[in-house]
Design goal:
The structure holds two protein chains of two kinds. By secondary structure, chain A is an alpha+beta fold. In chain A, about 40% of the residues lie in helices and about 20% in strands. Chain A contains eight helices and five strands; from the N terminus they run H-H-E-H-E-E-E-E-H-H-H-H-H. The longest helix of chain B has 17 residues. The chains are: A alpha+beta, B mainly beta.
Chain lengths: ~210, ~350
Amino acid sequence: MRRIMTVWAVAAAVWPALAVAAVSCTLNDPDKDIRRMFPASTSYKTEFFTLKEFGGAAAKAKVEGLLGDRLDDEYEAVDIGHAVYSVFKGTTLLGYVAGETQRGVYGSIQIVLAVNPQGDITDLYFQKLNLPQADRLKADAFRKQFIGLSLTDFYFHRQHYPGTAAGCRMDAIANPLSEDKIEFQNILRGMMKDLILLDMFKLNNAHISEEK
Amino acid sequence: MKATLKSVFMGAALAAAAGAGTRQLDYELNALAGYNGSRAVYAVPEQRPGVGLDYLQVLSGPYGDIARIQAQARLTVDPNGRFEPPYVLTPFGGNDAPEVPAANLEFHNLYGQIKLNQGRSDVWAGRRSIAFGLEPTLDTHSSMLQSFAMHAAGFKADWGGGVQGRFEKWDYRAAATLGSGMPLAAYGNYLGAARLGVLDMDADNIGFGVSALYGRTLPTMELMIMSREPVARMLAGLDASWQRGALALRVEVVGGEAGGVGAGGAWARATVTVPAWRWLAASGQGSWFYDDFRAREEMVHAGVEVTAKYNAALTPGLAYFYERTAAGVSDHSVFVHFYYAYPNLATWRPSR
């Protein structure tokens, strides 16, 4: 019995020292997915970031301000890790890949974005999407409308939503789920959260600073 | 090739020494209890009450990942177990225990993997899922229902090394392992296994696989070695998985020889995640395995598990199992299961 107690005591002492956060959305198959999103890539580097490392409550408030919505206290908590993959060709940075989990009507949605070093979307796909009309969202015709957009476009759109504004590139993106506005908004929220976090974690707040 | 390998190993060693890279760790609490007839039971294969950790370390250089280390370890207890020295059974040393021990130190995954050719030919060493059937594609670490590997090989993970790679529409894995399952034991046992997968259920909604294994495996039951006489096994298998909306289906068939005589079987699982109540999921599976080696034994297993996710960390569940052996003996059991995994112990509030 003493031996069991000793093992438990050692484990209890060691675990907190090692503890880091659970991760929001890692790629199921990063080798394959990153090669597909960046065909010229030769390597990628995985990193996990948390809002806690970037200021905790202040960072959370900054994200919520840009997003125009509260972060979930549990699934989007400051100690939840976010995986970011920096993609290289040799020693040249090609861009970043990051996925985010977003609550959806039919279960959680996992959206994966690829951006260039400036933060413009170069590709995207849904790693998890359970709604019955998923094929409409997975279609190239829908996904390709986001290529070239950045956090600046999402922020501009969010400021004027539900209205339209001259020069808003996102106003042209039609909801393929015509009967389901809520799920479409969930998907846009997930993408915008992904872009905000990428900006904070890897782009030195390049777009966030613009919006201030 | 030799120079590449040398630079990769040196890079991994330097990265490890420098602590370069990133890591994650989850605490794990596992509680289960049930009834089998009128008897209280506290264990099913691969699941016992206990505490554990799930640790992942990615080792990186300045321009890319070099290697990864994963450790899933559990210290489990069984109130029905033997409270005599040694109280804790470990994977190391002979464990010819006729009785269930009071505590087990279990390593479910414990391996280091070096990345080669952008994931096209990664090599690993340690303990991980066997390269056979659906087992390497399923995460059964927190599940009461296990894969068909428990019948085909007698265990779902093994000590050794292997190579695996991923391509756009197909993947492969091959491994040379000890053939002892959870104990690290060598009594003339060995196992070679390989699987070729085409498409992938997560990415393509459908996937297929063909597998083979050959070797002499030790009869083990988790950490206990039931016999030091390895059993010859030569099996081939086919598997398929498919999902549409809330429903996922998986099937696997195997055939070949065990102990020099015929063996084979089939396994199927259906999983439904209720769309309106996304926290609720149900899985049902059934398997039939014919083992001529074990006195022409024919085994039928069925199980149902319903889980209700309370929050991001805690998942309570109920499970029912049915088992019938060749002698016509039927066995029923029900279990309550609580599985908790999170980086801290403070998340007990329900999801909104």
